Amino acid sequence: MGEQRNSFLEQVQSQIKSKEARAFVSMELHHHLNEVKNYWLQKGISEDQAEAKAVTQMGNPISIGQSLNRIHRPKVDWMTLILFVAALLLGFLPLLSQGYMNDNHFSMYKAIFVVLGGVLALGMMLIDYRKMANKGWMFYLLGTALLLFLTRHFNTVVDGQAVFKLGPLKMEGLMAIPFFLMAWGGFFQSDRFKMWKFILLFILSSYFFLQFSLTTLFIYVAMTFTMIWWSKLNKKKIAIVLGTGFALVAAWGIIGWMTVAYYQKYRVLSFLNPYNAEYLTSKFGLLEIHHLLVGAGWFGKHSFADQFIPEAHTNFVFLSFTYYYGWLFAAILIVVLCLVALRIMFIARNLNDTYSKLLLAGVVMVYTVQLVGNVGMIAGFFPMTNMSLPFISYGLMPILLNAFLIGIVLSIYRRKDLMVTNTLHGNQQ
Question: What is the pTM of this model?
């Protein structure tokens, strides 16, 4: 009777175009056939008869195959793709506002960065992310090895951050974030992962991230804490660990205040007391930022701002964008970038798979921290940091990081229907 089952499965699979869907449907059909077969075995009939009844009861294999082909075919999340492309194209506007589009150096590299980001996102969409669920240790070791390499072999320092520069390519600690995203997703979806393992692994990785910048460390910590909260670990234990972690960070901050660089102290103090005479008269303090934002008006000044705005195309890109184009275009930019985050949260809400939800929780947090952090420091809500604005700030690493995040979202959406369903129950009645 195995031949009858195999014949039935082959006819069903012949109607399904996607290779991934065929493998999934075969597994699902085997599960349903075994359920029906066990039901008839409990009725006291022979195994061969139970097998035959199970296959017959499933229904017409051609009709089932056509139905499952419509349900389980891989899908493209056009909404996320459109927002992704829109954000990438908006990233050219700051170069235009700063007069860099006439500079072949900046415009050519920006175009290359965008193309590489698009290729990475589409490439990740085609990769089956589910195959990475049990490779947490591999990703953790790769991420740690990358951080260790960068701390040992960096050859330049940018804004106090160790960077390995090879020609126009700059490698920094931010590159390790995707590896740890995949690592924690694999760890947290497992029932066998213990809290003590998390504590040890998190402390080790945080130490390496600390060698680069507090901004990168903050992104990593926010991502990890968000993912662990949505994990299978006990919520009470998580709360205790997180509370202890925050207390240790506060203690470390108080002790380490005496050893941080002057520019780091300056950023914090100018945020806590922005109207102190020293900070009001600084070259570029909160008062100057406020003046530029208010003076932009609804339609901007349409004058180049890079001459008096430091890092106008990177950390202060939102300020230079607003100054040139005005509040209206700045609002449109924020809406587009916020819609990306909302879209990811909408996709996560409709998923039942733990691993997928963990990855999306980490993706949303990494993306949101960058968005809120960059805009918030310009608005005066946070101290000045080296936080990039997703897809808008100039640079290869920020674009690749966020393109990778979008690629994970596209990969999850593409396979969201390749999950166990009750589609066939109706055919079994």
Answer: 0.81
